[in-house]
Amino acid sequence: MPTFVLHCLDKADSLDLRMATRERHLAYVQSRAADVKIAGPMFDDAGGMAGSMFILDVADKAAAQAFHDADPYTQAGLWRQVELNPVKITFGQL
């Protein structure tokens, strides 16, 4: 299966929105555990949550986009910027 990196940056001053949506987001990601190889929050230089990163093994880019679209964080409007890119794992393994 192809591998994709999903890189999502939070909107400014969105910590309350992130925390209010967090449990639904975590439950969603857990429900898709077969597709999610690595995931977690990203932090800014001050240690505050600034976004999320996912490495997905899914059938194609459309499936990666569908994963993103169904995420409660996406549906809540948390992100200011999203990048979805295919990646070839050259070193290490998932």
TrEMBL record:
Domain of life: Bacteria
InterPro entries: Dimeric_a/b-barrel, Sec-metab_biosynth-assoc, YCII
Domain YCII-related intervals: 4-86
Annotated family: Belongs to the YciI family.
Name this polypeptide is given: YciI family protein
